Amino acid sequence: MSQTDEAKDAVRHDTVAHPMSAVFSMTLCVAMLIASEFMPVSLLTPMAEGLGATAGQTGQAVSVSGLFAVAASLLTATVAGRIDRKIVLLVMTTLMLVSLVMVALAPNFAVLMTARALLGITIGGFWSLATAVLMRLVAPAKVPQALAIMYTGQALAAAFAAPIGSYLGGLIGWRGVFWVLVPLVVINLFWQAIALPALPARSRLTFSNLLGVLFRPYFLRALGAIVFTWGSAFTMFTYLRPFLEGVTGVGVTTLSILLLVLGCAGFIGTWLAGRLAGDHVGRLLVAPPLVMGAVTLGLLAFGHSLVLVAVLLAVWGAMNTAVSIIWMAWLSQNVDDAPEAAGSLMVAAIQASILLGALIGGLLLDAFGIGATFAGSIVMALAAILFVGSGRSLLKH
């Protein structure tokens, strides 16, 4: 690296004594966030029985966290103003801890929903700042690798949180499962306090800053691609279980194995994206909707074959973790002058598209059946491909 490059690196990131320890503390936070967000899915029935609510009502515990995540992703960086970003992240982790304790102690449905709203604030706040913080912890050339490390936490939680939660729920009850997460979050809180350096805000983010980034032509087009990419993914994924049970004809044990295959494949996607995103991010942007849309089409065509379904789900799972790394690497390279504003807008778009994807998929399922739901996912994937094109129009000039 030349002296000029080193000088640029010094400007772009803070001096951190142990940057990888800081990155790994954020990795654990990601794992806890994903586990906390989706744990009710694996514990839906016992939670509903314990709180005197219906399964459908309890399922809204996932939706409400997503709703508050959209708001928090837009407001965190602006409301935080010039507050040290380390303090903001520690507050977010503390809110996650409070949420878990409230869920474990929840006497009724209203307390559960309040706790999940707090978790949503953590989700939106953390993700809106995460990439910007990583860009300050490591040199620009190391950002894709740091992103891959952080998203390993997502892969871990996606692979193991649901099956472990379901198993432990049968042994110690659903409240016990949430209590198990509490000491892990406490450890994470202390780790972050020690490992993260002071990260003073470099400028005050305002809504005019957000609008300035939003209306950059290449960024606005990128948001369109993001909305349809994640919308496509969650239109299919949210209703994967009814497809596997109704079309493939699997039982609970086989279903758990298939979901484990999907989750474990995420480690491969994380590794590949971390290696490739640094130099090829423009060309990689089309890969998620292309591959995931093709997998969904393959499931419609070959859904009766268990072996082919397992292979297709492994491919989907690998791309499911890669997509976040690819897009956040794109952010670090193309909106590096305003990463917090870009992160806020991108996280809001992602969370909103997840909610809309699940909503559209459910409407199609009730009206026309699971085939229509998967077809809707494929249409969204095609729209995302059109927005991305060759990828060149999404790069800053």
UniProtKB/TrEMBL annotation:
Keywords: Cell membrane, Membrane, Transmembrane, Transmembrane helix
UniProt cross-references to InterPro entries, sorted A to Z: MFS (IPR011701), MFS_dom (IPR020846), MFS_Efflux_Transporters (IPR050189), MFS_trans_sf (IPR036259)
Pfam families: MFS_1 (PF07690)
Membrane topology: Multi-pass membrane protein
A GO CC term assigned to this protein in UniProt: plasma membrane
Localization: Cell membrane
Main subcellular location: membrane
Gene3D superfamilies on file: MFS general substrate transporter like domains (1.20.1250.20)
Spans through the membrane: 21-41, 61-80, 87-111, 117-139, 146-165, 177-199, 219-240, 252-272, 284-302, 308-330, 342-361, 367-388
Major facilitator superfamily (MFS) profile domain ranges (all copies): 15-397
Single GO molecular function: transmembrane transporter activity
The keyword Protease is annotated on this UniProt entry: no
Cross-referenced PANTHER family: PURINE EFFLUX PUMP PBUE (PTHR43124), PURINE RIBONUCLEOSIDE EFFLUX PUMP NEPI (PTHR43124:SF5)
Name under which the protein is recorded: Putative MFS family arabinose efflux permease
